[in-house]
User: Which sequence fits this backbone?
């Protein structure tokens, strides 16, 4: 909010808000730069959205063409696709901007938009925690790449391509989740004395853009993980068992031993499992969630919880079926009396002993 209030005067003066201006304001508010990891650009853009809303609040009477405070209460109610709100396609500030913009132009539009004084835009706390969907994340990455290229043209002009590595032009790359640095810290914190985070990264660096790896020479993987000497492979295997116990990998034996076939699980899902087992510190988990939302991958955590709920429902249904199949039917009170009267009752010359 402080950053938004400092940006608002620039909007009031009609000045163009440049990237340099925005960086300076956010750096002063947060007490550090983005290069130091104190803030991220998502927070900067959210500050600009807050500034727009503050600007509209301050000048809404002028924007709406009326001087009456009561008359400036927005009555325009946009008809938006449901996913705009449920998927978090627009932030709260953006939605409010849409409402005030529609209010300003409603007198020129023929329509039936109306709302009483009690009408309010209600957005659940859960939706506030969600980030953009996959399409938004893709667009954001594209914009980040464009900005990075602009910075390179300004700060590193004429740098020879031979010294630059890019995925689109260079060979020998692997797709790795952006959360991996924090995931590795979480693993190392849980496996103190025998940190296994780097061992996991080496597996991902060897993956053929597919979650299944075939390890034919464990010594190679042990060396890449930093283990040398006679017990290098044994040390590597201990780390692999730790990763398996924490659900970052699943394994099957083969010609090379216990870890011939390795399945790389989603590390974000594995961290959430660790959290459910109280194996992740609050500070690390908070940073992990922030990074997930920053890259638009928070939906993966929601998917894990959906799987857990489905499994719990299935287990409950199976348990209920099992109890029903093994339980003994208890006869009603009238039937009990009839059974008691029938004890030792001869039928066709046979005496039935009921017990």
Assistant:
């Amino acid at each position: 909010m402080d950053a938004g209030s400092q940006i608002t005067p620039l909007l009031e003066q009609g000045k163009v808000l440049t990237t340099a201006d925005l960086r300076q304001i956010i750096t002063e508010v947060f007490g550090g730069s983005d290069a130091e990891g104190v803030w991220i650009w998502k927070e900067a853009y959210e500050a600009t959205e807050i500034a727009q809303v503050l600007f509209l609040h301050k000048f809404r009477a002028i924007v709406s063409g009326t001087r009456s405070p009561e008359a400036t209460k927005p009555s325009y109610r946009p008809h938006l696709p449901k996913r705009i709100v449920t998927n978090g396609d627009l932030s709260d500030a953006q939605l409010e901007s849409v409402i005030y913009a529609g209010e300003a132009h409603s007198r020129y539009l023929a329509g039936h938009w109306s709302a009483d004084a009690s009408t309010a835009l209600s957005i659940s706390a859960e939706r506030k925690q969600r980030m953009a969907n996959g399409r938004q994340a893709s667009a954001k990455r594209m914009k980040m790449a464009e900005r990075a290229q602009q910075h390179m043209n300004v700060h590193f002009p004429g740098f020879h391509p031979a010294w630059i590595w890019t995925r689109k032009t260079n060979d020998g790359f692997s797709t790795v989740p952006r959360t991996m640095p924090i995931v590795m810290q979480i693993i190392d914190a849980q496996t103190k004395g025998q940190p296994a985070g780097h061992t996991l990264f080496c597996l991902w660096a060897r993956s053929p853009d597919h979650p299944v790896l075939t390890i034919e020479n464990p010594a190679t993987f042990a060396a890449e993980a930093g283990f040398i000497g006679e017990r290098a492979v044994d040390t590597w295997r201990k780390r692999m068992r730790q990763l398996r116990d924490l659900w970052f990998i699943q394994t099957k034996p083969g010609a090379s031993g216990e870890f011939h076939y390795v399945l790389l699980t989603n590390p974000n899902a594995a961290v959430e499992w660790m959290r459910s087992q109280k194996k992740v510190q609050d500070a690390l988990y908070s940073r992990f969630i922030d990074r997930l939302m920053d890259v638009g991958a928070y939906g993966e955590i929601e998917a894990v919880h959906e799987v857990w709920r489905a499994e719990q429902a299935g287990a409950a249904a199976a348990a209920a079926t099992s109890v029903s199949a093994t339980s003994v039917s208890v006869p009603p009170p009238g039937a009990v009396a009839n059974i008691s009267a029938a004890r030792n009752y001869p039928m066709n010359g046979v005496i039935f002993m009921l017990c």
